[in-house]
Every structure is written in C-alpha cells, then in structure tokens.
Amino acid sequence: EADIYQTPRYLVIGTGKKITLECSQTMGHDKMYWYQQDPGMELHLIHYSYGVNSTEKGDLSSESTVSRIRTEHFPLTLESARPSHTSQYLCASCSGLSREKLFFGSGTQLSVL
Amino acid sequence: GESVGLHLPTLSVQEGDNSIINCAYSNSASDYFIWYKQESGKGPQFIIDIRSNMDKRQGQRVTVLLNKTVKHLSLQIAATQPGDSAVYFCAENIERGQAGTALIFGKGTTLSVSS
C-alpha cells in the first residue's frame, strides 16, 4: 500500500479563484509527479520534480505551478481557475532509481464553474 | 511525438475467460514498461512491469509480453474475475535528458467482466 495522499478529494470552485492541490508522501521518495486525466482518457504529465528545489514542466502545457520545498510535499497551484481546468489531478512518487514504478494518490477531482 | 497507445478502448469478457489487452508504443529507445489498473474514482495501481531485456514476465494471474521488433506490449489476465473490471493503461519510461525519466501513458482499455 502506497503512502501518498492528496487533498482535497473533490473541489468545486468558481472561476478566478486561486487554489492549491496538496500532495504528500511518507516514503521518502525523491521523485514526484503531477498528471492530469480527463474521464476515461490517458494521464498527461504536467509537472515533475527530482528532489527539493527541483521542478520541471511535463508534456502537457499547464497554467498551474508547483513547488518542492520539502521532500515529502509537492503542492500544485492554480492562480486563477477556469472551467478549462476542470479535470482529475493525480500525484505520484517513486524512489531515486531511474526506472521505478510510480505510486499514485487517489486524485483530486476539480470542477471549476 | 512520443506516444503509447492501446488498440481497443473496450474489452468485454465472461468471468473465467482469459483477457488480453494490447498496447503499441512508438519510442524504440524505451527500456522499461509498466501496466497499471485504475478502478473508478481511484488512482492507477501497479500491476506488473517489464524491462526491455525481457520478452515475458509473469505475476499472479497476469503475464506481460514484450515484442520489441514491432513495439508491442500485451497484458494477459488468466481466469478473469469481476474484480478485474477497470481501465488498464500501459506506460513507457521516457528519457528526458538531464531531467531524468518520466512515465508516458497510453489511452487505456476498459475491461468489463460479466458473471
């Protein structure tokens, strides 16, 4: 059982609001990732981090930003949410080895009205 | 661009049958592949992985086959059970230079198992 947690589980907000999606893992993993997934579709990598103070953009352009101040914490922020941001956001982590399976959180389902 | 795709969006089987889910990948340099299972409302869950120096790997009721010649990956589930109903994704590990590696996912196959 992976120890990676995402909050909130569901979030409904109005357009223009600033939001932060939380992701924490207790496994001491160096690598953390954010994926975006629309219903029934594949996961798209939007951000990842290889350690503290390291962040990289993924393949899918995203208006969100991330930070990695602590190993266990990798929050994702939207400064001004829009309906086009409505989606599921999945956080994942893995150890420092280059080829490792990712452990996923349960996701945050975001709805922007 | 690089992509990992699945041949069929849905697969329906009877309980007890064997299921085969296919995946085609495009990056011949990929050397590590994973199958994930995602149940409704949950994050993806690891099923089995395989490195490119292998053709086959077996787990409990699952087998992954890798054909590097045609860049094809398949997941076989023996004696499929209703609890196997989920969306299945294949993913390949892509090198990103100094940024290391990241998993790229295919589109997913929804497996429905009827009793």
Please give a structural write-up.
The complex is a heterodimer of chains A (113) and B (115). Chain A is mostly beta strands. Chain A has one domain (4-112): Immunoglobulin-like, CATH 2.60.40.10. Chain A has no helices and 11 strands. In chain A, the strands form 2 sheets. In chain A, strands 2, 4, 5, 6, 9, 10 and 11 form a 7-stranded mixed beta sheet that branches. In chain A, strands 1-3-8-7 form a 4-stranded antiparallel beta sheet, with no helix packed on it. In chain A, strand 9 (87-94) and strand 10 form a beta hairpin. In chain A, 38% of the residues are buried. Chain B contains no helices and 11 strands. In chain B, the strands form 2 sheets. In chain B, strands 2, 4, 5, 9, 10 and 11 form a 6-stranded mixed beta sheet that branches. In chain B, strands 1-3-8-7-6 form a 5-stranded antiparallel beta sheet, with no helix packed on it. Chain B is globular and about 50 Å long. Chain A binds chain B through residues 31, 33, 35, 40-45, 48, 50, 56, 58-59, 90, 92, 98-99, 101-107, and chain B through 1, 31-32, 34, 36, 41-46, 49, 51, 87, 89, 93, 96, 99-108, 110.
Topology:
The complex is a heterodimer of chains A (113) and B (115).
Chain A: E1 4-7, E2 10-13, E3 19-25, E4 31-37, E5 43-51, E6 54-57, E7 65-66, E8 76-78, E9 87-94, E10 103-104, E11 108-112
Parallel strand pairs in A: 2-11
Antiparallel strand pairs in A: 1-3, 3-8, 4-5, 4-9, 5-6, 7-8, 9-10, 9-11
Chain B: E1 4-6, E2 10-14, E3 19-25, E4 32-38, E5 45-51, E6 56-58, E7 62-67, E8 72-77, E9 86-95, E10 101-105, E11 109-114
The tally of structural domains of chain A comes to 1
Mean pLDDT of chain B, as a whole number?
89
User: What is the largest interface, and how many residues per chain?
Assistant: A-B, 25 and 28 residues
Rg value of chain A: 13 Å
